[in-house]
Amino acid sequence: MKINAGRFLKLLLVAGVLAAFLGAAAANAQEPTTVTILETSDVHGHIYNWDFFGNAEKDQGLAIVSTLVEQERAADPNLLLLDNGDTIQGTPLIYYYNTKKTDETNPMAAVMNAMGYDAMTIGNHEFNYGQDVLDKFISEAQFPVMSANIRNSDGSQKYTPYIIKDVNGVKVGILSLTTVGIPVWEKPENIAGLRFDDAIETAKEYIPKMKEEGATVIVALSHSGAHVEPADSRAEGAWETDYTTWVDKGYADVPDQNFIIKLAEAVPEIDVIMAGHAHSTIPQSVINGVLIVEPYKWGRGVSKVTLKVDDAGNVIEKTGEFISGAEVTPDQAILDMAKDYQDTALAYVNSTIGTATGDFPGAYEARWKDGALADFINAVQLDMAADAGYPADISLAAIFNNEGHFSAGDIKISDVYGIYQYDNTLYVMEVTGDILKRALEHDAEYWAQVDPAAPAVTDPETLLAGDVRDYNWDMYSGIDYKIDISKPVGERVVDLTYQGAPVTPEQKFVLAVNNYRAGGGGGYSMFKEGKILWKSMSEIRDYMTEYIAAKGTLDPQDYYVDNWSLLPASLYGESAAMAPATLPVSGGAHPDSSSTALYFLLGGGLLIVVAVVVRRRTNRIPE
Ligand SMILES: [Zn+2]
């Protein structure tokens, strides 16, 4: 029989009504069970709605998360609350209680216990203060702190790998997986006796066991993110587009540190992947049938997953969303219980760690002519690199804002945060003279072009080239150079020398540089051509704090090396001779860099030895 279009539509309608009727009847017989799961990740020590770096209130931290959790608990008292790691590192508060006041309960354990967390996955930053600090936190947490793929060296289980929770009669298995990049970033002594197994193989190993034990819903709480992301990842629905069109985030240097997409492709029996580590906001994404969420960072919101589960325990519907903490009132109960921790941390950041015998000026004064502040930051970076066993020849640093400086007198921790507002880590990388030259030419674009006979400048800010960013103007230690801003862009770097000899394009240098710049941030894509030798796990700022505390006294003349200037010299007028005559005139060596200081003392022979050592170490880094 031939069915015309009108009749076909009628048939469809009848079938639809019938299906809806049958569906409703079935639902009446057995309503699906709702399982609600909330996730935080990368909270990084934030409890109060306070920004220690900007010294002001900010909509973040567990007190705001607690308000969101209680709102959700009002709707579903049996919800699961999970944290995905990078929890006990990141603020001066947690730093203080991990390193200075270790006899008290870890503040994150105390607050998370009060909030009723059900489980947590160990993140890479959990190892930053050594295993004793992590073990103490685990012993204080009233919830399991887990990882299935971090094991003892002999392959035995070190941490709880998974738990199975009964939620409204549904058995929800939560498997913890951790990024495998830890051996690349962490100090060897902090991960002694541990090995980091492949996350996907580990998931394949444990999920059958979890199912044998009755789990019908599988959640992979994974301290790991997506290795590719939508080009405009903040656009509405961006994470629901076809993931094969997403772009590389440049994580190739540590393969599989962000493994969640590969996990979803390889292990579709996972119902939900709760992601982290990448500090991305993934409201929801579905890859190979696996729901993926990620809740940004610092307690600025939570991921919420809602599952509808049938009588047999199968997930029949799953949705994800990000609930922002912006303009949410913090939970007073959490503020009250954490008040001692917060007050102690504030007193700590306002405490004196050292003394400056003179000024280290900041802002434009320190950007348009060589000064002690950038030289100091570079000295700290070179010291940090040498301390890690990766001595560098050259360091570069920017003066991020106009407020940061040291005045003669007390140096407080808050002064360090003022100078170093970003939570950057340090990279040591090998670059060629050619890369270095191109980076300097890009650097020089910070300045507008001036007349070769330009008069003396009193306000250097007037020399800037339009809409430039101060944090993208790098000042280098370890090389000598001039930047002639009477020349057009691309032809400005002159007299570039290393240890008194002109830099050649194929010459190799070891560079100490922050992670932002190493990743090509600020348009410095040429640095991505360099070879990464080492990445720090700890932040430059924390190292700077320890460095100052260890030195006690900072003399700007110990740091200041006159190794760069702008041309034409007429710009500086009479003030061109800024360097006191007694100060050393560069030569590439920095008085505080153990590596370059050694070159200075011992000459070229040692260079070859260091170069060989560096090259051998390079082999340890996965390509
Ligand atoms: Zn992480």
Characterize this entry briefly.
The chain has two domains: 30-346, Purple Acid Phosphatase, chain A, domain 2 (4-Layer Sandwich), CATH 3.60.21; 352-618, 5'-nucleotidase,  domain 2.
What is the CATH T-level topology of the largest domain?
Answer: Purple Acid Phosphatase, chain A, domain 2
Mean of residue pLDDT values: 87
| CATH architecture heading of the largest domain | 4-Layer Sandwich
Binned strand content: 15-25%
Largest beta-sheet characterization: 6 strands, mixed
By DSSP, the count of extended strands is 30
CATH homology-level superfamily of the largest domain: Metallo-dependent phosphatases
Report the span from N to C terminus: 66 Å
The DSSP helix count reads 19
Radius of gyration: 28 Å
**Regions with little confidence, pLDDT below 50 for 5+ residues:** 1-28, 575-623
Structural class: alpha/beta
**Shape assignment:** globular
Strand order of the largest sheet: 6-5-4-1-17-18
What ligands can be seen in this structure? zinc ion
Percent in helix: 25-40%
CATH class of the largest domain: Alpha Beta
Task: Work out the count of structural domains.
Answer: 2
Explain what the structure shows:
The chain is α/β, with parallel strands linked by helices and 623 residues long. The protein folds into two domains: 30-346, 4-Layer Sandwich (Purple Acid Phosphatase, chain A, domain 2), CATH 3.60.21; 352-618, 5'-Nucleotidase, C-terminal domain (5'-nucleotidase,  domain 2). The protein has 19 helices and 30 strands. The strands form eight sheets. Strands 6-5-4-1-17-18 form a six-stranded mixed β-sheet. The termini are far apart. Bound molecules: zinc ion. Residues 86, 123-125, 223, 277 line the site of zinc ion (ZN).
